[in-house]
Write a structure and sequence with these properties.
Shape: globular
Order of helices and strands: HHHH
Number of domains: 1
CATH architecture: Orthogonal Bundle
Oligomer: single chain
CATH class: Mainly Alpha
Helix content: 55-70%
Length: about 90
């Protein structure tokens, strides 16, 4: 995860240090699931990730929070010109 994203969360979004740490944990878990290639995501892979979270007995609010974090990350990447679309725009939240 880039320092630029962490700075964006702090400066632009005004998030607290604890919230930023939670974002880091959620994104790290997601990145690990993708085997580190976070830029390869698409709606199919994200749907598979949600299914995996459900298998792990994550509740709807936890899944929604994790998807919100991931969506914010992809929105940042889109704004920065690193990706051509946000794959979570195609996903409805639980």
């Amino acid at each position: 995860m880039s320092e630029a994203f962490l700075e964006y969360l702090s400066v632009e979004r005004g998030l607290s240090a604890n919230t930023i740490e939670a974002y880091k944990r959620d994104l790290s878990q997601y990145s690990k699931w993708l085997k580190g290639d976070i830029l390869k995501a698409n709606s199919t892979l994200i749907g598979e990730y949600v299914a995996r979270l459900r298998e792990k007995k994550c509740g709807p609010s936890t899944i929604s929070r994790k998807l919100s974090v991931i969506r914010t990350f992809y929105k940042f990447l889109y704004i920065e010109g690193k990706i051509d679309h946000n794959p979570l725009e195609e996903i409805s939240f639980p």
